[in-house]
Amino acid sequence: MERFIYLIIFVCTLHICRAQEDLSKIKTKIDSMAYASRAKADAVLSLFDSLKTTKLLYSISNEHFYVLINVDCKYIEYYIYADSSNIIKEKRFIEHPKQNIALLSKAVDVNKYHQVFITKVNDVIVTQGNPSYFVVKDKDGKRYGEYWLPVITSPIPIDQEVYNYLFSELLKQSSKNEK
Length: 179
Prior knowledge:
The model is unreliable at 9-23 (pLDDT under 50). The protein is an alpha+beta fold. Helices cover 39% and strands 30% of the residues. A hairpin with a 3-residue loop joins strand 1 (55-60) and strand 2 (64-71). The protein contains three helices and six strands, in the order H-E-E-E-E-H-E-E-H. The longest helix is centred in the first third of the chain and has 44 residues, at 2-45. Strands 4-3-2-1-5-6 form a six-stranded antiparallel sheet.
C-alpha cells in the first residue's frame, strides 16, 4: 500500500511538472510574439526617425498601424499598412478638420503611462481578438505604456478614451485600405 501511495505521489508530481513546463512554453511563445510586434512597430516608427519628438503607435495584427506624432503641440496622424513581410504597402496622412487636442495631448503624455512591457493583465474581465500593440516613445526612444494584448481586453492598461480613439481611428483607416 505504501508503494502505491508513493507511486501516486510520483505520478502527480510528474503531471504538475509537466503542466508548469507547458505554461512556461506558452509564456515563452507569447513573449516571442510580443517582441516580434515590437520589432515591426520599431520598423514603422523608423520612418519618422528624422522627427526627434514623442511618437505614439497602435497596431492590430502587425499589419495596420496608427502613428501619432507630436510636433510643436500639433499632432500629425498617419495610417500605415505593412504586409506580413513588413513591407510598407501604404502610408497615408490622416487629416482631421478639427483635432481633439486635449485627447491627443493626453495620448502622448508619457507621465500617464507605465514603464513595463505588459503582455498579460491581472484580473482580466475579457480578452478576445487579434493581437494589438501599443507604445509611446519619447524623443530619446524610451518606451511608455507598452503592451501586447488582444484587441478587446478589459481592463485595458491605458486611458479608455485614448484607446477608443485609437481603435476606432485604426478601424476606419484600415477599412479605407480594403476598398
